[in-house]
Design brief:
Structural class: alpha+beta
Number of strands: 5
Radius of gyration: 19 Å
Helix content: 25-40%
Strand content: 15-25%
Distance between the termini: 50 Å
Number of helices: 3
CATH topology of the largest domain: GMP Synthetase, Chain A, domain 3
CATH superfamily of the largest domain: K homology (KH) domain
Largest sheet: 3 strands, antiparallel
Shape: elongated
CATH class of the largest domain: Alpha Beta
CATH architecture of the largest domain: 2-Layer Sandwich
Length: 146
């Protein structure tokens, strides 16, 4: 049975806690954790890597229903994402995703229709991708303890 959610459900709280020099643990009120740190630190994701992973995961989740409907619930998919940072401006000017799927059971026309459907689904409902494409306002407030 699918989990029911309502409009009165509190949104998930997200935060990071410093655990060392340039090391943080990202947490959610649902109990999830992710280790974050500098690129040279083993066992952590950098913030930029998390951004890329969020994009790839969003694309995968946005295409999951049409793909599972046509390929079955146990289809395999890997979404690779890459993009070098422009360190002079501290931005990622381009992020590239590659979705790897085995479509060999479908004829060429069915493959083309499914790829088009996947692209439309991701363009329509991937919040992360839509936000990156549109840009977003980001604010920072520093709360000071006296």
């Amino acid at each position: 049975m699918a989990e029911q959610t309502s409009d009165t459900t509190a949104p998930t709280s997200l935060w990071v806690e410093r655990t060392g020099t340039r090391r943080f643990t990202g947490r959610s009120s649902r109990g999830a954790e992710v280790l974050i740190g500098s690129e040279g630190v083993e066992g952590v994701f950098t913030p930029g890597e998390l951004l890329k992973i969020a994009l790839a995961a969003c694309s995968g989740m946005s295409s999951d229903f049409p793909l599972s409907r046509r390929l079955g619930d146990n289809y395999d998919a890997t979404i690779r994402v890459s993009g070098a940072a422009d360190r002079e401006n501290e931005v990622y000017p381009q992020l590239d995703e590659v979705m790897e799927l085995d479509l060999s059971e479908l004829d060429a026309d069915a493959q083309e229709r499914l790829v088009a459907l996947v692209e439309r689904s991701v363009d329509k409902v991937c919040t992360v991708g839509r936000t990156l494409k549109a840009g977003t306002k980001v604010t920072l407030t520093v709360e000071r303890e006296a």
